[in-house]
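REVIEWER CHECKLIST
Item 1: Sequence provided? yes
Item 2: Single chain? yes
Item 3: Sequence as submitted:
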Amino acid sequence: MIWAVGELALHVFVPLSPDEPLALQGHSHVQLGGGAGMIARAAAASGKPAGLIGVVGGDATGDLIAQLASSSAASSLVARDTENGSSVVYLHASREKLERVTFAPGGPRMALCLESLDHIKAGAPVYCPAFPGYDEVLRALAARDVQLIVDIGFAPWLGDTARLQRATEDAPDCACMMISCAGLSPEEIQALAERAARKTSRVLATAGARAALIRDREELFWRQPPPAKVVRCDVGAGDIVAHTLLQALDDGTPFVSACERALSAASAHVGRWGVEVRS
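Item 4: Structure as written out by the authors:
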């Protein structure tokens, strides 16, 4: 069983498009998503159980997200009835119903999140982002007997080599580190992967869904090196990579094969949704 700790909801801007309802065009709204939310939804869609410990901010937006997550419309996206044997995605380890349990990173509800970690079984693959405010929960996870997958993919850091380097250095020791490297040259990506190897023996550094640098212990190789001058914005690719990687590791798939499977799944997703921006 996989676990995801992190963002529960995502701000989405609906573009002006004949494919979208007119009432939504040109407006932003909040939907169940974010890294952890998307991983949980993907797990539910695949028919496999997953645990979700949701995170929201401590402001009015966070309250809105919490209300959305507790509504029947939102919960139907991630919850399945346990009585008929279907898969279940739940908050705060409730095996019977979807509970609205959230915390603000660094806020007074952090203790509730840390308590929720007690439900994670030893050896389980666990996704958690290394975003601002997550230091305490990352340290708590690193101290447990779990396969911790740390995601260094905070949007404001993309293309900022120095900030990504600091994030890899600040991350705890983990089973695997995922790094979003859009906007970096192949040389910068390789240097970043080698720096991350000080904290983990397994690194997946992605430059969009199609190109990635994989490090498994001493083995280091490219899967389709990115062109030097391309900044690729693959919408949702990171969530697909994370979910597929966790599921593959949970199935006992070797790391390199798990990465290949995850990248292939993301490439199929991006085939419909990807946006490529050339500099």
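Item 5: Key structural point noted by reviewer: The chain is about 35% helix and 25% strand.
Item 6: Recommendation: ____
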